[in-house]
Specification:
nine-stranded antiparallel β-sheet
Length: 193
Amino acid sequence: QMKKTFGQQCINLSAGHDLGKAHIDYSAFLSRGNRSDRNYYDRDANSYDMSEYSRINTVQQRIDLFYKKFSFTGMMDHYTVLERDGYTNVLETPVQTTFNSYYFHGKYDLEKGKFHFTSGLKFKQNQPWYTVLKSTMADFPPYNTVVKKNEAYINGSYDTKNFDLVFGIDAYCLIADQKIDSNFFHDGKSRFV
């Protein structure tokens, strides 16, 4: 138990509904918490009250849609940390760092006799360690990088009494885009495909 603040508060929601021949599901998870309510001290004896600047907030949402042989899934995950404890000294202003992720997957199932095919498209984007509030401290520079992955696939199978044949093809593209104001990362111009 913390005397000055709460440890964690959360809520979980879920619902589903039929829309004619389609069905939709939705779920969400929201939470907020604090790492500590004590005073933080750096190596130079500077300090601050962590009950105000040690928050951890989470927002997760998911939606699923089903219609005949087609299905779609979408997910979002937002994770936020508020802090003032830098790598060395206490930061003059609080820094909000987010870890955001998005995921989408759509697929279609098709059966023709003994053949079964599944084709789909996937998209995933991650944005970790994104600094929202820029600190004036030199030891905590802004950070921004985005990683995206696009994928398309077709899987199939042929079933008989004596053997099963499984085959498939998969293609994807991975892009990492770094937008960091630093000489180490080429002043934010690095892009890898």
